[in-house]
Structures are given as structure tokens and as C-alpha cells.
Design a protein that fits this description.
With about 180 residues, this protein is α+β, with helices and mostly antiparallel strands. It has a domain of about 120 residues: Nuclear Transport Factor 2, Chain: A (Roll). About 35% of the residues lie in helices and about 35% in strands. The protein is built from 4 helices and 6 strands. It has a 4-stranded antiparallel beta sheet. A two-stranded antiparallel sheet has the order 1-2. The longest helix has 24 residues. It starts with a helix and ends in a 7-residue tail after the last strand. About 20% of the residues have low confidence.
Length: about 180
């Protein structure tokens, strides 16, 4: 009984704090009902450029999900799923990267990847360019080559991934160093 009351009290306290925070985030209005005329200020977790807001926290969550989707696509050895996460218009030498990924898939029997995003920075749209983000990812790859499947190999490296927001969502524009994906 006391636990249930304590849980109810805690829930009410958290809801009250959330509502107070939400009311603090609202922009003040002038007596005429319009905006104050000042530039919109960015609240914590939101960036604004010329009126176009981007929720930084939501963008970071989506980028983390994209990194996990990329890892899953590699492990399932589906090259098309890997390249679907990339933006061919933004990625330099895209055809070469596509061939490198296909070669990795073709030459390995067992492939495991571990990605841990260490740092993600989201930048809002500027001067007609879409929002962008950059992630530093601690990566580890374990694999066996078809030519010597008894011996498992391992690589560790920090990768730099650039993302661009497109109509299809966040997509990878660059991965460096690409040599990490060469068996």
C-alpha cells in the first residue's frame, strides 16, 4: 500500500515537472498576440536557423538508430541494405565504396561488427544546405576470410561518419577511413 502511494506520488511529481518545463519552453507573446519580434531562441536540445528548427535530441536518436541499422545490414551481408543507408549524391567515389562493400561481403564467411557512437554533433541547415551531423564511432570488426575460414581476424578503429538530412531521412554522406571495410 505504501509502495503504491509512493509510486503514485513520484509519478505525479514527474508529470508536474514535465508540465512546468513544457510551459517554460513556450515562446512569449506580445499584447497584440504576435511574436516579440526578436529572433527565436534555441532551447536546450533544439537548434534554429532562420526559423527552421531541428530537434537535436531526436536527430541524435535517429542517427544512433541509423548506425545500428548499418551494423545490422553489414552482419546480414546484404550489400544493398548497407548502400541504402548512404546518400549516393553526397558520398564521394560512391561506386568505389559500393564495390568495396560488396567485396567485403563476398570474401568473408563470418562477419560481426560492433559500433559504439562516441560523439554525435548535429548542425542545423545553413545557407540552403540541409541539416548535417557528424558521428565518431568506435568500431570493431571480426571476420573470417573464405580462403582461411579457420582463422578469425579482428580490426578496431575509430570511424568518422558524416550524415545529411534528406527527404528519405538521415543518410550517410561519408565514412572515414574506408580502409576499415577492406578485409
Amino acid at each position: 500500500m505504501i509502495r503504491a502511494a509512493g509510486s503514485l506520488f513520484l509519478s505525479l511529481a514527474l508529470m508536474t515537472l514535465a508540465l512546468q518545463q513544457k510551459s517554460c519552453d513556450k515562446k512569449p507573446a506580445t499584447a497584440g498576440g504576435g511574436s516579440t519580434g526578436s529572433a527565436p531562441s534555441a532551447s536546450v536540445g533544439t537548434a534554429s536557423v532562420s526559423g527552421a528548427d531541428i530537434d537535436v535530441n531526436a536527430a541524435e536518436r535517429e542517427i544512433r538508430r541509423k548506425i545500428e541499422d548499418l551494423r545490422g545490414a553489414f552482419e546480414s551481408k546484404m550489400a544493398r541494405s548497407v548502400t541504402r543507408e548512404m546518400d549516393p549524391n553526397e558520398t564521394s567515389a560512391y561506386a568505389g565504396l559500393e564495390e568495396q562493400i560488396q567485396s567485403l561481403m563476398d570474401n568473408t564467411t563470418d562477419l560481426q561488427l560492433f559500433f559504439r557512437p562516441a560523439n554525435i554533433q548535429v548542425r542545423p541547415a545553413e545557407q540552403g544546405r540541409p541539416p548535417r551531423a557528424q558521428a565518431q564511432v568506435d568500431a570493431e570488426m571480426r571476420y573470417s576470410l573464405k580462403s582461411s575460414s579457420a582463422q578469425q581476424k579482428q580490426k578496431r578503429q575509430q570511424l568518422l561518419m558524416d550524415f545529411v538530412k534528406s527527404p528519405q531521412g538521415w543518410r550517410i554522406a561519408r565514412i572515414e577511413p574506408r580502409s576499415f571495410f577492406t578485409p
